[in-house]
Amino acid sequence: MANNAEPALILSRVCARFADEREAGAYVLRDISLAVERGSFVSVAGPSGAGKSTLMRVVLGLMRPASGHIVRRYERAAMVFQNYALFPWLSALENAAYGLKMAGVGKREREAIARENLAEVGLAHLESRYPIALSGGQRQRVGLARALAVNPDLLVMDEPFSNLDTITAEALKADLVKIWRQYGMTILMINHLIPDAVELSDQVVVMAAKPGRIKEVIDIDLVRPRDPRSPHFFREVDRLTEAIRAVSQ
Amino acid sequence: MNAKWHRHHRLRYRRTLLIMAAVLLLAGTLAAGGYFAGVSWPALADALIRTTYRLAASYLLALALGVALALLVGWSPVADYLFPVFDILQNIPSFALIPLFIYFFGATDEMIILFAVSSIIWPILFAVLTAIRGAHVDLSDAATVYGARGWRRVPYYLAPLSYPAILTGSVVGIAIGWEAVIGAEIIVAAIGATTGFGAFIAEAGASGLNAATIAGTLSILLLVFVVNRLVWAPLLAESSYRYGE
To answer: How many angstroms separate the CA atoms of B165 and B159, rounded?
Structure first.
């Protein structure tokens, strides 16, 4: 699905350490080198402690790397969080409009954009609700609307489906694919679920733990839309399962 | 879980109402029996108004200072070093400082207000600091990713994040504040002349007029109850619902 081969993000020998005293000195990421093509959908998989979330934080500039270089060739990044990270003091509409408000967009304009994005994720009727009054799936949709509202060219997602039930996760996944095709942004997603990674991704980055490092980058060459019951799909799932099993031992 | 929580609070609220009704009934019975005949109600009302004014002024000052300091410190990399300093400072028994306050500010209204600030500020400061530093890293990351950086982080992330902590810190701070203001008024009344509820009960105690002390205590109990029910309880309920999980 990549529009062209130009990278949106390049990481070169990036290392990161925890600032925490107990973990001081231990690398949480070691020599991460990776190029993410513009418009591609890349999943990051691996065992717990492989530094997947840290990698996302480093990419977004939320954590400073200890060494290495990062070339960011995107203009606006957005993130969707595993625990939704919606602001409890704001309504669904205000949450969705948050990034636009911070960017100085006027109230009427930002609310119109946020409303469109809420409608896009199927939540137009719940715009005045506060996060506490929304289900997990609805909260994640607000999180997605908040991300889309800033019109990102890089969307980082930290296990966005892991707290959702299967039906909700499937519906959100379908919406995500539709949105990705429509907007053409680069997506970098942490994903524990192997079939999901195969179904969604152009590439899967397999990470190993202690220290967190890239073990393998697997290209998923299946044509889209992907049929999760096809033999080719199962073959890719097997290949990825083996790769993850190898780094989990 | 929510239903159980609400049931528990409804029950507690009813019990409080029952106790207050019993207290009022007792006060009414005593009044009807002429027990409060010697009490000067205008003097008591004046004392309550002055004490409430001092408390309100102290609270507003402590709120402004406590929240500002907590936002400043909670946000900065030196927070880890300042936290233990604040911890030691808040452990100093506040009444041990009153001679210093009297030395610097005299037996004045300002002294009482500033002394109360030194007591009220700590629960507010610590509640807000704890809220800021205990916030989930994802929420902080979301604020950063979506642009709440630099000074904009204060009004658009840290301040609203701290709202429930400001409320709980205020409730505790004001409870401590009543003690501080009334205690300071009693002490100042002993060394000079002052007004307020502390002075009123100090004078009543000295002249053996227990009815005035009891009338004053019942009045302040009623005042605190009404303020809690009308102001703090709805705010706390609303924030614990919205911010709760």
So the answer is: 10
Whether residue A19 lies within 8 A of chain B, CB to CB, comes out as no
SS3 B94: helix
Does the pLDDT value for residue B49 go beyond 80? yes
Chain B environment of A57 (Cβ under 8 Å): 141
| Domain limits, chain A | 1-75+154-162+174-249, 80-152
User: A189 — alpha (psi -120 to 50), left (phi > 0) or beta?
Assistant: beta
**Which class in CATH covers the domain with range B41-243?**
mainly alpha
Nearest Cβ partner for B136 among A83, A89, A101: A83
Would the CB atoms of A89 and B160 count as touching at under 8 Å?
yes
Per-residue pLDDT tens over the stretch A50-88: 999 999 999 999 999 999 999 999 999 999 999 999 999
Smallest CA-to-CA distance from B159 within B51, B64, B26 is with B64
- Note which residues in 42-61 of chain A have CB less than 8 A from chain B: 57, 60
What is the biggest distance separating any 2 CA atoms in chain B, rounded to whole angstroms? Answer: 69
Taking only the tens place, the pLDDT of each residue in A120-172 is 999 999 999 999 999 999 999 999 999 999 999 999 999 998 888 888 888 88
- Cβ contacts of B151-157, under 8 Å, gap ≥ 24: B152/A102, B153/B75, B154/B71, B154/B75, B156/A98, B156/A101, B156/A102, B157/A87
Mean pLDDT of chain B: 89
pLDDT given for residue A190 in this prediction: 95
pTM, entire model: 0.86
Note whether B144 contacts A83, CB cutoff 8 Å: no
Nearest to B111 by CA among B57, B157, B173: B57
- Predicted confidence (pLDDT) per residue in B117-146, tens digit: 999 999 999 999 999 988 999 999 999 999
Say how far residue B188 (Cα) sits from the centre of its chain: 21
| Domain residue limits, chain B | 1-35, 41-243
Banded model confidence at residue B193, pLDDT cuts 50, 70, 90: confident
Topology (CATH) of A1-75+154-162+174-249? Rossmann fold (3.40.50)
Q: Which whole number is the average pLDDT over B166-171?
A: 96
| Residue numbers in A near B244 (CB within 8 A) | 132
Cα of A235 to nearest chain B Cα, Å: 35
Residue B83 Cα, gap to closest chain A Cα (Å):
17
